[in-house]
Fold:
Amino acid sequence: MKMHLKPIFLYYSKELAKGILACFLTLLLMAALTTAILYVNGETISRTSVSLTGSLFIFAFVIAIVAARSQMRLALQFGISRLTAFVNHLLCGFLLSAFLFLCNGLTDKGQFFFKYATQKFAGLVFTDAVFQFLVLFCLYLFGTFLSLLFWRLNRTGAIVVIVSMIVLINLASGLFGVNLIPFAKWLVASPSRIILLLLLLSGAFGAGSWFALRRANIHGAVAG
Structure:
């Protein structure tokens, strides 16, 4: 089946660029205001970049939730197949994750580009770059999965999923006596293990999103 991917990808790339630009300018404004406040109070500004990184992670997650349904609705209205719309959504997520990672590098006091320029920490920085990109892309796919899953489910199914998620969160927090600390220590001992876990999660969320989309009853924006 031939996919007419270029027109829809170009359209959403332009829309995505507007969102990235707005996010980047907002974060720069936040960083400038925070720096100014801390400077006036005579405090350190060493932790300013941490909040910006967290904001980018949240942005990737939220924009996936919003964009997943709107992109599918618009694509089907113009006769574009679900597969083409889904591939476009994944490409947009890849592009978004790359740009957000670069935004984080620019706002993080230029440390990312400085380390690359010196070549002293090239291996470490490359690993960190892959890690940050995969976290962004994994959060994007997780947001897509949740959006399409709840679009697919009826009210009863949505309640079952929400309760199941609460149970899983409680399990992860050790409420039921499950100790995940040894596994966490084993995981963080090697960056390659974390990267492999992010790849597996990304693949699972991507596959789950596609299976949910295939059987979703897509309505118009008003009716859906």
